[in-house]
Amino acid sequence: MIPKALLLVSLVLFILYIFESIKPEQKVKIEHGGISQVVEGLKQQGYSVNIIDKYILALLGSPRAGTILFEKDETLSRVVFLYKIANTKPTGIDNNITLIPGETLDIFFENIAKQMNLNKTILMEEYKKQSYYKEAGISPDTYFVNTNMNEKKLIEFLVKQSEEKYKQIATKYFNSYDKDKWQNVLIKASIIQKEAANKQEMPIISSVIDNRISKNMKLQMDGSLNYGIYSHVAVTPERIKNDTTTFNTYKNYGLPKSPICSVSQEAIEAAINPSKTDYLYFVKNKENIHTFTKDFRSHRDAIEKNK
């Protein structure tokens, strides 16, 4: 007979094993074939599974070939992960859609409407209904989505994922997620996103924004005019002269009334934690990064130097 102590230890180890945490990718492919093929397929995708999981899967249900979608950054116990593998109906063919940092919803919705055979106008209407933010309500990322999603379901999914991310960052810095306060963060972050040549510049540009506002100076930043359909349009003197929106920081003091584009976590963190500088100006140099200066004379010299 097996000693009771050994049985007890085995039981404890088994319980610890099945409640071990697993963080699945957003999409998990389930191979055709029996349980053995499914387990082998999970191994090839990087999951630590073995013969024990094979028997657990057999007890929990019958996995079906296809792709199973999980929530982004979802953490599950091993037994719940295996239960979902065994019992979740796989999706149809899935799409990867990507929103890059600095892109506007106008361009993003145009692209995914073509990719998924959806209606851009309906996408925009659904976004306005479901998101608190006129722009930047969808966080830049690659999303795995079901081909069969309609406009409403797609926007619901994208906004939900983004809201969860925003809540996480806001709680880290402010201990709460207040949408009015967060909108101000997104507005500032969107200008930083459009202006910065790289991630390292972001906190410095954030400080320039603060320094100019504190001195009652207009921001006069070209990136603020790359909103909506103008996301990739060069800003000309004529455009500066004729644009009457709040995005025109050559005409208006302070920040625009709403964000300009999608914003990365780095831009958000730079907006919250600017560098401590006395810089008031910056201009792109020959290395395709920015030269920062503290006064107009130095700024003018930097412009001449980099012509």
Give a structural overview.
The chain is mainly α and 307 residues long. The protein folds into two domains: 4-87, no CATH class; 92-276, no CATH class. Helices cover 48% and strands 10% of the residues. It is built from twelve helices and eight strands. The protein has helices at 4-18, 35-44, 51-60, 78-87, 105-116, 120-130, 151-174, 179-195, 202-214, 237-242, 265-272, 296-305, and strands at residues 21-22, 27-30, 66-69, 76-77, 94-99, 141-146, 281-284, 290-293. Strands 1-4 form a two-stranded antiparallel sheet. β7 and β8 (290-293) form a beta hairpin. α6 (120-130) packs parallel to α7 and α9 runs parallel beside α11 (265-272). The mean pLDDT is 92.
Write a short abstract of this structure.
The protein has 307 residues and is mainly alpha-helical.
